[in-house]
């Protein structure tokens, strides 16, 4: 990626006043109905379009107009331009280089759904360019990236929504779960178990030709320069049309170079709800202990020793010591979802059900009126994008803000570090560092590849 188009931080901040002023508009009578711009709607752009990128774009047509899309895969970009054109009657502009979107003054906000290793760079540069940001989970690749993002949100005053959509889930099971805990329906919480599934190991994945239309160097971006790898067998269903085994599309979650396996995938959802219910969204654990786990390849000093197989943990049971003597278990075993256990009972919640005696008791002993709204901080938004736009209008942070997200994501990142090093970690939630373990602390950050540093 050439840096010849680099904009200085001074130039960006000078342009922010006009952009920011244009974003602070009077509230509409209908919540999230849109800005009072030329056509009454905010202007969005999406960066990263495969799978979840299209999902969040599609869910946002009701509230916003999409002026531009960006993706490093020309095939994905072209397909999505056509889908957006069909949905809104006008084709968005298409770019391989996301920075061309950030240069545009007509775009109010960006939605980011790239692989995880790109999130922080794009999000920070977008905020300095005067854009509000919706970024998919997990927000960061490392713990220190979360601190960087928090600093820039505070400095720029941009509104930032993280895509942990369970907080705005339409069926409101997770909001009800938090309300049950908050209203003492399980008594004092003693244990919470987050079932987040495991993953399968891969066979050896050979070096392969880069697919036509994919800019592999730009896909890697801040990550180390490596060969593209893939097996010819194609994936079916969600994520279909791409190799079943690769180090790129869809499978990137199984590589620590780009993501954090199931811990930062499903973990970013269920650990989030658990921390919310426990009231631990502004603090953190004291200890993370990997009880048992399986890594698919050999590791040395916390780093995989081979480059041709998935390297994120396949199975795991991790104990996390949370405030108030609550034990959290993060496991690849059992049903996907969250089990809350307290002195008065227990219940289980996931995307398909909420079950247990405290739930059954609601027939005779319902929650107080407004209990769910109290959890959400007001009337529950129609969906996660609606909540984001409400925040853009009010200039208040949405329901999935960066601070609470990073606090719970630290648990997921620390769990991965503990497994990679094969030992328990003691965590200082105030200093946000690992206690007495210099080697482990070295995993809190990661250096970007030369030429792909964050431009400030």
UniProtKB/TrEMBL annotation:
Residues 1-32 form the signal peptide. Its EC number is 1.1.1.18. GO terms for molecular function: inositol 2-dehydrogenase (NAD+) activity; nucleotide binding. Residues 203-453 form the Gfo/Idh/MocA-like oxidoreductase bacterial type C-terminal domain. The keyword GTP-binding does not apply. Keywords: Oxidoreductase, Signal. It comes from the Bacteria. It holds the Pfam family GFO_IDH_MocA_C2. InterPro entries: Gfo/Idh/MocA-like_OxRdtase_N, Gfo/Idh/MocA_oxidrdct_glycsds, Gfo/Idh/MocA_OxRdtase_bact_C, NAD(P)-bd_dom_sf, TAT_signal. Residues 67-163 form the Gfo/Idh/MocA-like oxidoreductase N-terminal domain. This is Inositol 2-dehydrogenase.
